[in-house]
Amino acid sequence: MNEIDRLDRTEGEKMFGYIMLTNKKKIYYEIHGEVHLPVFLYLHGGPGAGSYDFIEHQGHRLSKFMRIIAIDQRGVLRSDSIEDNESFGIFDLVDDCEAIRKQLGIKKWGIIGHSFGGYVAVQYQLHYPENVTSLLLECPMLDLGSSARSLIAGAAQEYERLGKDEKIKDCLTAVNIMGTEEVWGKCIEFLQDLEEHKDNLYVYGEDKHFFDHLVEKSGIPQKNWERAANHQQKLYQEGKVFESLLPHLDSITCPMLLLKGKYDWVTSKDQLTAFSNGQSNRKLSIFKQSGHFPRFEEPALYASVIREFISDK
Which residues form the AB hydrolase-1 domain (predicted)? Predict the structure, then answer.
C-alpha cells in the first residue's frame, strides 16, 4: 500500500481536506459527525458524480448518529483529475479506500454506496472483508448489463409517453442484447437521445432536474464537474465494471441494507432477487415515493431507516 500524506482543516462541524497518494494525486474528503460515533465511508455513483449532493442532502441528518467520511473518488470533482495517459481501473478505487482507512486510523467502518458506488462498496468488502462492519447500498448497480436492460425498458416507457413508436421498437430489440458492454452502449445511446427527459427515469417527484440545479449552485467550477468523463471512460475501457457481482453476494456475511426507490430502474428486478434470498444478514427497504435518489426524495425516511438499521446491528 502506498504511503500517503494528509492535508486537512476544519470549518464549523466538518473536517475536510486531501489525502495525497505517493503518485502525488490528491483525494478530496470530508468528515461529518462526532468522533465517538460509528464510522461510515460514503462512495458516490456516476461513475464520477462526486459526494457533494450526498452531503448536501444527508450530511446534517446522518451525522447525528454516525461519523461520515465522504470522498470524491480518484479523478472526480474536487480530487485531482486523471490524465489521458494515466493507468486507472476499478481496483484503484478499492485500494484508495483502504489507503484512506489506514491514513485516518480507522480500524473498521461501514460503507454506504450509491448506484455505481454500491459496486465499489461490494468490491471493497470482497477484498477487505475484515475491515467492513456493514454495507448500506442505495439503489446499487451490481450488474451493469441487468441495469442497462432495466433502464432501456424504462426508456421505452418514456418514448411511449413521447409518442416515438420507432424508438420503442429499438428499445424492445436492445433489451435482448446479451453482451454487457454492448447493451450498456445501447443504453447510453437511448439516454442521450432522451436528453432532459432521461431524468424521468431517475427522479420520481416533480423536481426532475435537482442535480443540475445543485451543480449550478455548488460554487464548484464546471471544469471540476467535467472530470467525470475521463473517470468514466477509463473504467469502461478497463472493462472490469462489466463483470456482475451477483454471484459473489453469498460470500458476504456482514449486515447488508439495500435502500431501493420503488420507481428506480437501476437496481433491476433480478438484482433485487439475488439480494433478497432469505439470508438473515440482509434487509431490504423500499421507498415508495422515490426513484434513484431516496436520500433526496424522501430524506427524513432515508435517515430514519439507516438509523434503525445500524442501531439493530
Answer: 38-299
Query: Phi/psi at 311 (nearest 5 deg)?
Result: -75, -30
Q: In the structure grid, which three cell numbers stand for residue 294, read together?
A: 431516496
Is the domain of 249 the same as that of 304? yes
Task: Select from 201, 208, 207, 220 the least CA-distant residue to 268.
Answer: 201
How far is residue 105's CA from residue 103's CA, in Å, rounded to a whole number?
5
With cell 430524506, the residue in question is 299
Residues 239 and 308 in one domain: yes
d(CA 68, CA 103): 15
Question: Total structural domains in the chain?
Answer: 2
Residue 276 CA to residue 152 CA, distance in Å, equals 23
pLDDT for 58:
98
C-alpha cell at 312: 439493530
In this structure, are residues 71 and 101 in contact, taking their beta carbons and an 8 Å threshold?
Answer: no
DSSP 8-state secondary structure symbol assigned to residue 57 = I
Q: What mean pLDDT comes out for the span 154-166?
A: 98
Contacts of 308 (CB under 8 A, 6+ apart): none
pLDDT > 80? residue 12: no
Q: Note the pLDDT of residue 246.
A: 97
Q: What is the DSSP string of 148-179?
A: HHHHHHHHHHHHHHHT-HHHHHHHHHHTT---
Q: Cis peptide before 47, with omega less than 30 degrees from 0?
A: yes
Query: Which residues span the domain enclosing 122?
Result: 5-143+209-312
- In three-state secondary structure terms, 19 is strand
Residue labelled with grid coordinates 430502474: 265
3-state secondary structure 279-305: CCCEEEEEECCCCCCHHHHCHHHHHHH
The neighbouring-strand residues paired with 10 are: 15
